[in-house]
Amino acid sequence: MTAETQNNDTTPSALGKFFTSVGLLRESPIAIFGLSLILFWVILAILAPILPLYDPNAPLEPFKFPLDGSAKNDGLYWLGTDHKGRDILSRVIFGAQQVLVWATTATAVAYIVGMLMGVVAGYLGGWWDEVISFISNILLSFPVIVLYIIIITYLGATGFNIVLAVTFASAPGIMRIVRGLVLDLRTRDYIFAAQTRGESPLYIMIVELLPNARGPLIVDACLRLGYTTITIAMLGYLGLGLPPPDPDWGKMIAETQPLGSFAGHMAVVPAVAISSLVLGFNLLADGLREISMKD
Amino acid sequence: MEQTPILECRNLCISYDTRGGEIPAVIDFNMKVMPGKGVGIVGESGCGKSTVALAIMQYLGSNGYIKSGEIFFHGRDMRTMSEEELRSIRGSKIAMIYQEPMASLNPSMKIGEQLAEVPLYHEDVTKEEAMQRALELLEAVKLPDPPRILDSYPHQISGGQQQRVVIAMALLSKPDLLLLDEPTTALDVTVERGIVELVNEISAEFGTAMVYISHNLGLILETCDRVTVMYSGEAVEDGTVEEVFDDMKHPYTSGLFASIPLPGADKNERPLVPIPGQLPLPHQRPTGCYFGPRCAFFRDGQCNQEKLPMRTVEGNEGHHVRCVRFEEIDWSEGDHTSVAVKSVDSGKVVLSVRNMKKYYEIKSSSILAMIRGDNVKTVKANENINFDAREAETVAIVGESGCGKSTFAKVLMGLEDATDGEVILNGKDLGQIPVQKRSPQTVGHLQMVFQNPFDTLNPSHSVGSQIARVIRKFGVEKDPNKVREKVNDLLDLVKLPRDFAHRRPRQLSGGQKQRIGIARAFAGNPAVVVADEPVSALDVSVQAAVTGLLTEIQNDLRSTLLFISHDLSVVRYLSDRVVVMYLGHIVEQGTTDEVFSPPYHPYTEALLSAVPIADTSVEQKQIILEGDIPSAVNPPPGCPFQTRCPRKIGSICETDVPPVKDMGNGHMVTCHLDTDVFEAMEPVIVMQEGEAAE
């Protein structure tokens, strides 16, 4: 019996485990690069209130180009100002706050709904599965953009409604992934063991099934955060985004796009911001997948 | 006369590059395969036996490579061959047969086309000639109705037939060397017997040399001339089959034989002796002898000094052993504890199953079936199950896949309702009560040990919390401190250290996981424990320890054990009574002695003859069943076994369900055969006197 117990590694603490998993990221330079892009925006968004920035909504001097030092108050417009004289740097950073908060909230809500639908459809099967899959198929058959426009135009452009729209559009896809994972997991002996000791279906779904589906879901969640960022930017661009005057990357592009011929920076800066954040999410997802495949 | 070997491996070292650095998978491996001979490689999982086969095929994958040593094929070093040359050798001169037949066949191509591809690629033949060759080989591998199979897709034929097709495919280009990697592990015993017979005939007929890789010593004995025993990447012993099986020199080989239940093993006189501990991971290998930490004859300073070479046994040129002290070992000095199975007096009847039936309905959604009105088909998974199990008794339920033993377990556990009949536990009929409606005590009284150790524990939760959940759920203890105490008690019971409670399942080995599974089953002081093939997925050397533990706990707590298994050797060793099932029917039941000695049911007789036995002193009658187990959707009329029965007596078997005949003392056989035929039956397994007495 002594040899059987020889690998006596101590159980790591929760914090230790976290650092081990971050350490694993080192194996994929792509993941590190993606994470850095995301962290860049997250840190800027968090620090926005204490950074020495102009008020993002204050009309200062219109049509200033980047690094134009001729500001009235001896300041410097790092990225210039837009047609209404608002500081672009300040608007991009405060815009990051908006995008990150709403993208995360919307994805999280979509995940909760999608996972519940998926685990119920996959585990209980039968009529539950038929009904949930049918609803999902109907939602998936709508062009996403039409779905967004219908929801937002009828319910109004608020953060809550954006979350609702994203949930409607993403939950069916998440439900399909979770359902597939659960169909596989439910045949495992530990599920059988839980059934034979008389556990309720709810317990089995939440405690026994979902935690084991997390691997593929983390990668998918990363990708989906990227999609949601695009969605929010797109809604902003279409004028269906967050209510004015708060800065919104999509709306910034839409407003300044006609001026592109002589003041291109006004639209390019928020466009680069969107792309870099989405790229960050996609690269992190790719890196995570690569790492999980190695094992 | 000196012949050139077909294949020779010299000082072969194979390594894999992984995250943790280089991992040596095979170290210093030597092998010679002479024309027409069979060489077996035997060892437990992770010992490197499959890596050797892959290296011979030069298929090591992107991170595997041959570090040093040579592989000669017909005297040419394969490492110097170009990719082009290798391709022309693979499949035409060397053919490989894998464990999973379905994975070797292309599911979207007809079998004929797949077979014809081989000669079309390697030789200059026309399509018609290739098809003709394919047809001839399907006949050679004794498949029924070859033209039909030629025109079928792989999923349309059974697993045993698929493996025969794979063998036919391997033989198509008349290879000089056949590599078989666990070719029958995924098949049932009676089907396995047919394949083994086929492999033997083929090597005799075509003169093909074979490398037969298996964890099953019995199969090696039946198919090979020489055998190499591997342990943790090294060959520890090689020699002719007789030398290794009858005059083994290495402690690991001897431990392996002592841990498998041979017919001569007896609970009391020759008990099983498990090898303690587990196979070391490649980076945890000790210095000196890799087997050292698990060896009963380990000598400090002698066995753990430097890397050991293979040494020749004096007076026996072909027999090599990797052990420094094999000449001086006194086999009686080992201090391994054996698995003691006490004979316990069985008490009152605890579980009683009466005329239990379980039918499933399958709805066919095809339009034709709906028009005809026969869109509902009934699968008779269990038909008239009758038996009793007493307190502290071990009842084995034996049968091959599809015999309904798992369905029976499901009904018993309350996951399925019985269609008819009663399942009485402690005087209470549970047949129609689903598990959700049973009281926690009843649920705790009827628990299960599962087959697959890698699946039996939830990977997301710690071991301790999973056991604690069971304790709370069965209402054994509520108070958190008492629950913790009880968890510790249970870990003590299964002989694992208490700090295992904090571990995650992935930090445990297969045997340890299965111990936790046993602890979980015994948490609610069960009256009946159902063990569904509890050790079949474990390594041979660990199996004995886990089986021993299971029976020991069961004896101490006086629980009833329902031991579901296909392995008759284990069943014979462990159980007090045996129930043999075939296609949902109980065909024979009685005490272990009654079932294992004549008179037999013809199916039991065939099953006994099919079990590979790793003992040269045993003579086994050869009964080869034809065909496969019929589908339960479409069972044959009359006797379920009539389609394969070697003792079929005529039309009565096809029309009438056979009666249950009492052979005395509750030994029941369900068969039409006359009493005088039963009386004339001879034992299937005969021990040769003298040798067996050693």
Notable features of this structure?
heterodimer; A: 295 residues; mainly alpha; elongated; B: 694 residues; alpha/beta; 8-stranded mixed beta sheet; 23% strand
Would you give an account of this structure?
The complex is a heterodimer of chains A (295) and B (694). Chain A has helices spanning 14-24, 29-47, 88-124, 126-141, 144-155, 159-185, 189-196, 201-209, 214-237, 249-256, 265-294. Mean pLDDT of chain A is 83; it is low at 1-12. Chain A contains 11 helices and no strands. By secondary structure, chain A is mainly alpha-helical. The longest helix of chain A is centred in the middle third of the chain and has 37 residues, at 88-124. With 694 residues, chain B is an alpha/beta fold. Helix content of chain B is 30%, strand content 23%. In chain B, strand 24 and strand 25 (668-670) form a beta hairpin. In chain B, helix 5 packs across helix 7 (159-171), helix 15 packs across helix 16 (480-493) and helix 17 packs parallel to helix 18. Chain B is globular, with a radius of gyration of 27 Å. The relative contact order of chain B is 0.09. Residues 690-694 of chain B have low confidence and may be disordered. Chains A and B meet through helix 7 of A and helix 14 and helix 17 of B.
Map the helices and strands.
The complex is a heterodimer of chains A (295) and B (694).
Chain A: H1 14-24, H2 29-47, H3 88-124, H4 126-141, H5 144-155, H6 159-185, H7 189-196, H8 201-209, H9 214-237, H10 249-256, H11 265-294
Helix pairs in contact in A: 2-3, 2-11, 3-4, 3-6, 3-8, 3-9, 3-11, 4-6, 5-6, 6-9, 7-8, 9-10, 9-11, 10-11
Chain B: E1 7-18, E2 21-33, E3 38-42, H1 49-56, E4 64-73, E5 76-77, H2 83-89, E6 94-97, H3 101-104, H4 111-122, H5 127-140, H6 146-150, H7 159-171, E7 177-181, H8 189-206, E8 209-214, H9 217-223, E9 226-231, E10 234-240, H10 241-246, H11 251-259, E11 311-313, E12 316-321, E13 349-363, H12 367-372, E14 376-390, E15 394-398, H13 405-413, E16 420-425, E17 428-429, H14 440-445, E18 446-449, H15 463-473, H16 480-493, H17 510-521, E19 528-532, H18 540-557, E20 560-565, H19 568-574, E21 577-582, E22 585-591, H20 592-596, H21 602-610, E23 618-620, H22 651-655, E24 660-662, E25 668-670, H23 675-680, E26 685-687
Parallel strand pairs in B: 3-8, 3-9, 6-7, 7-8, 15-20, 15-21, 18-19, 19-20
Antiparallel strand pairs in B: 1-2, 1-4, 4-5, 9-10, 10-12, 11-12, 13-14, 13-16, 16-17, 21-22, 22-25, 23-26, 24-25
Helix pairs in contact in B: 4-5, 5-7, 7-8, 15-16, 17-18
